[in-house]
Amino acid sequence: MLESSPLIIPLAAVCAYLLGSIPFAVVSSKIFGLADPRSYGSGNPGATNVLRSGSKRAAICTLIGDSMKGWLAVFLARTLAFTPSVVGIVALAVFLGHVFPIFLKFKGGKGVATAVGILLALDVSLGLAAFGCWLLVLLLWRTVSLASVAAAITAPVVAFFFQREYALPVVLLAALLIARHAQNLRRLVAGDEPKIGARKREG
Q1: Does residue 77 contact residue 86 with C-beta atoms inside 8 Å?
Q2: CA dist., res. 155 & res. 173, Å (int)
Q3: Rounded CA gap, 75 and 31, in Å?
Q4: pLDDT greater than 60 at residue 130
Q5: pTM, rounded to two decimals
Q6: What span, in angstroms and rounded, lies between the C-alpha atoms of 104 and 132?
Q7: Cα separations (Å) of 69 from 5, 42, 140, 149, 184?
């Protein structure tokens, strides 16, 4: 078996981490001639903050890039017939690469798009369930962070019932994503979290 080599698992994890570290928010902004997304809005190098630049195309490119790197890492791991535990390690590594990217001095995005890509690669129904929850909450309450946290809570529940072999990495991924939204959760409790279309600055 391919992963029987002692070097394969750490090599796969490192490659996944480096792939996750590619900052598509910064890359897309440079391509479209925009300011570095870390210099305005929330300072977060993610699609939501890039959208604040006024360029929907740059935001869409960021969204696609961030989700595709998560999907690609897990897809390749599954294609190489790694065991579910190793696939889980790859999934966590690519996610950690996004939120703690070596190319941005370990200050990355919150990981929502990358998480969706990872979930879709683990199982399409799992990814669609999380995305469906995210979209429903977003449409009802127009708050991206609330939608993201709701999707993060939904994913482990769905995994437990339908993809139990991936339940542990999905739980860890969800916990990391929720932790990345700690400030947003505090603002939600205080009633200060911006909604879509609001001009209030998000920290």
Answers
A1: yes
A2: 9
A3: 27
A4: yes
A5: 0.92
A6: 31
A7: 25, 23, 29, 21, 25
Integer Cα distance of 75 and 174 in angstroms: 19
CA proximity to 110, closest of 170, 13, 184, 164: 184
Residues 127 and 84: beta-carbon distance below 8 Å: no
CA distance 147 to 140: 9
pLDDT in tens, 46-99: 998 999 998 999 999 999 999 999 999 999 999 998 999 999 999 999 999 999
12 CB neighbour count, 10 Å cutoff: 22
Q: How many CA atoms lie within 13 A of 22 on its CB side?
A: 20
Three-state SS for 202? Answer: coil
**Cα–Cα distance measured from residue 131 to residue 146, given in angstroms and rounded to the nearest whole number:** 13
Q: Which DSSP category does 46 fall into?
A: S
Distance CA 119, CA 113 (A): 10
What region does 47 belong to: left with phi over 0, alpha with psi -120 to 50, or beta? alpha
49: tokens are 């903050």
Distances (CA, A) of 132 to 42, 138, 142: 25, 10, 14
Q: Do 127 and 119 touch, CB atoms closer than 8 A?
A: yes
Distance CA(77)–CA(96), nearest Å, equals 16
